[in-house]
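step=encode ok
step=design start
structure_in=
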């Protein structure tokens, strides 16, 4: 793929995911500045880009560490000497615990936990290897996914972890991903998050337990961190590229979407055109913005709707477009959910001024274990 360097993006074979390097660098700098001004340590989630080079850019911009979802992602980042790492996922199974202990032997590692069923056997594996990982008790603050269900349950798990060799209790984590909608709705949701965190922090401190790290944050709420003053670490991921679902907040726009799918029109008829990018290139992730429809946006053409996807086809409604679309036309599709799209590709082209400057290998692609 190095032969692509120096070529204009219009010459690339499609479908091809292309990063606008200027936009990506602005996105990295924007949140790094926000975190620095508010005294928060940034721990960007690498599941979005799955690439060590981009992770290094985030660290160079001031991030205090990197977040990963699965042991495989942790192994990729650790193999490049990147860290500290936060494994924010309740990994279960002897093979996973062995691999996590292997990462902890080479990298400063923190794990987020929401049950003794994971904490106790993981701690035994870590202790057997003679290594230690820091631990954050994950608290459900409204997402209804992972996390203990109450401050009292967080205290109970924290007390269990505090007694375990191999794990060092460091504090709390949560994911306020449910905080979406209007700014007023988001402010209300984040105020409730802060109230829950304050109650939980108080319980841990009253019990004499360490709680100096409070990990939270998300891309939708990234510019509202002042509403969660208990947060010491911010874990946004999508912000590095952004996508159609996320630019409806934080005063962002289409130009801030750094990663687009460059696609070619392969068929035109009866008020529709078909792109060479279907669900195998774009994913079929839903749109999470206002209206909740469509499978991506055509950059510069809001009147064109990507109305459905099959595996290899992106079918667009062009009935409202005044442009005379033809086979061979090229478009840039802004994906609904960029994280899922990235995991479908081996490489991402990085371009500046329309010319490919570098090619990124998606080294952690498929690391679902």
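sequence_out=
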């Amino acid at each position: 793929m190095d032969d692509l360097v120096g070529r204009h993006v219009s010459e690339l074979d499609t479908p091809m995911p292309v990063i606008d390097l200027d936009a990506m660098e602005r996105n990295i700098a924007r949140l790094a500045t926000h975190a620095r001004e508010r005294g928060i340590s940034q721990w960007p989630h690498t599941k979005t880009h799955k690439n060590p080079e981009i992770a290094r850019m985030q660290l160079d911009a001031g991030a205090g560490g990197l977040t990963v979802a699965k042991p495989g992602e942790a192994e990729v980042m650790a193999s490049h000497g990147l860290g500290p790492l936060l494994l924010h996922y309740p990994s279960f199974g002897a093979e996973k615990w062995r691999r996590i202990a292997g990462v902890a032997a080479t990298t400063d590692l923190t794990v987020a936990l929401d049950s003794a069923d994971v904490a106790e056997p993981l701690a035994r594996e870590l202790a057997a290897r003679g290594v230690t990982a820091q631990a954050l008790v994950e608290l459900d603050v409204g997402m209804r996914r992972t996390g203990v269900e109450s401050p009292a349950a967080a205290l109970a798990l924290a007390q269990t972890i505090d007694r375990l060799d191999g794990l060092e209790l460091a504090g709390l984590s949560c994911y306020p991903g449910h905080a979406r909608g209007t700014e007023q709705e988001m402010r209300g949701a984040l105020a409730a998050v802060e109230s829950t965190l304050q109650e939980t922090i108080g319980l841990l401190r009253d019990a004499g337990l360490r709680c100096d790290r409070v990990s939270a944050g998300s891309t939708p709420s990234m510019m509202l961190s002042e509403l969660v003053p208990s947060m010491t670490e911010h874990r946004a991921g999508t912000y590095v590229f952004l996508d159609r679902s996320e630019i409806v907040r934080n005063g962002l726009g289409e130009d801030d979407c750094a990663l687009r799918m460059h696609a070619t029109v392969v068929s035109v008829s009866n008020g529709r055109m078909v792109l060479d990018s279907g669900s195998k290139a774009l994913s079929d992730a839903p749109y999470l913005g206002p209206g909740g429809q469509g499978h991506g946006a055509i950059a510069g053409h809001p009147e064109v709707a990507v109305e459905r996807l099959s595996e290899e086809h992106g079918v667009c409604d062009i009935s409202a477009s005044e442009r005379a679309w033809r086979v061979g036309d090229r478009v840039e599709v802004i994906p609904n959910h960029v994280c899922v799209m990235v995991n479908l590709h081996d490489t991402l082209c990085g371009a500046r001024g329309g010319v490919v400057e570098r090619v990124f290998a998606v080294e952690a692609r498929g690391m679902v274990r």
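step=design ok
step=annotate ok -> The first helix runs from residue 21 to 37.
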